[in-house]
Amino acid sequence: MKMKPVAPFEPIRSENLPGGPDWITQVKWDGVRILTYYDGNEARLINRKGNERSRQYPEFMEVSSYCRADSVILDGEMIALNGDRPSFHEIMRRDSLRREQEIRFAVKQIPAIHMIFDVLYYNGKWVTDRTLAERQELLQEIIVPSALLQLVPSYSNGESLLAVMKERGWEGVVSKRLDSTYALGGKDGRWQKLKLGYDLYAVIGGVTYRDGVMNALLLGLYDENGQFIYIGHTGSGKLNQAAWRSLNHQISTLMVKDRTFHNIPQRIKGAVWIQPLLTVKVQFMEWTPGGTMRHPVLQGMADIPPKSCTVTQNM
Predict the structure, then answer these.
(1) pTM of the model
(2) Which residues are paired to 162 by β-bridges?
(3) At 163, which helix (H) or strand (E)?
């Protein structure tokens, strides 16, 4: 039986941590949301958008090696580390691969870690109507942790965890009610995320150079009328020199004569326009009154369609 992919439960954004004994708090990983489907014979890995990622992560296809279940659906985040911290850029290097030879090479060169935090289906039955506390107990019973696959720890003191995240410069935390059931395709206040900054997917519409070297990307989003709106610029951020050079090469093949943005960017002097085909993930502090990002930092390249980078996207 081939399991039909489902939409995962999503947290809402909050500016404050909920408190009390009814809540636990977990690390918000800077990775790719992946659900694992196993019907007893076949395993599949599906991302939040419903796209299959089984080929990209072959080391997680033998579900029976890490989960004691005849059939199961697990919810988690696929991450990769840069030093001692999760890196969106690194996991996207894995997630964007398509060629078999490159994937086999990347398994060792860019190790992925699957952080499991929920279970939706177990041994032929949906468990989404059980409480989070009950589902976590089930996970403890069926998951066999390893260096490549871990259960996400839960903390009763959310403030302490958030302080650690701030100190390390990580993405943030997610707080969940222990009595919450799992709402397929849902999104409500029983799960709340507190992010240290805002995340956004944007499209590169131009670049600027300094002394002949690319030094900034000009970014945009599509508004409700389909117009491509400039929202700010960013430097290389968390991309290493090799990735920045590779991006520069890609951009050199996409240059066009006319401005691609509907509005006029702040950094128009010396700007070079490109076809809006390359997407990135950025993190920033807040929106300015002028509608641009304050202190944006490039997190990595993104493998999503440019037209999905809209002003109404909800991260």
Answers:
(1) 0.76
(2) none
(3) helix 158-168
| Dist. CA 278–CA 208, nearest whole Å | 16
CA distances from 163 to 16, 27, 160, 257, 299 (A): 13, 11, 5, 48, 22
Cα–Cα distances in angstroms (integers) from residue 178 to residues 11, 131, 216, 302, in the given order: 14, 6, 45, 33
- As to burial, measured by CB atoms within 10 angstroms (0-12 exposed, 13-18 middle, 19+ buried), residue 187 is middle
Which tens digit of pLDDT belongs to each residue from 208-217? 998 889 999 9
Nearest to 162 by CA among 300, 59, 4, 28: 28
- How many Cβ atoms are within 10 Å of 286's Cβ, its own excluded? 9
In this predicted model, what pLDDT tens digit does every residue of 59-87 receive, in sequence order?
999 999 999 999 999 999 999 998 888 98
Paired tokens of 176:
């969940």
pLDDT at 111: 96
Nearest to 159, CA basis, from 147, 167, 148, 149:
167
Rg (CA), the chain: 21
Place of tokens 């002097």: 269
* HSE value, Cβ hemisphere, 13 Å, CA-based, for 83: 5
Pairing relation of β-strands 198-210 and 279-284? antiparallel
Domains defined along the chain, listed by start: 10-195 (3.30.470.30), 198-308 (2.40.50.140)
100 token code pair: 């078999």
Rounded Cα distance, 299 and 293, in Å: 14
Strand pairing class (112-122; 149-151): parallel
Total length of the chain? 315
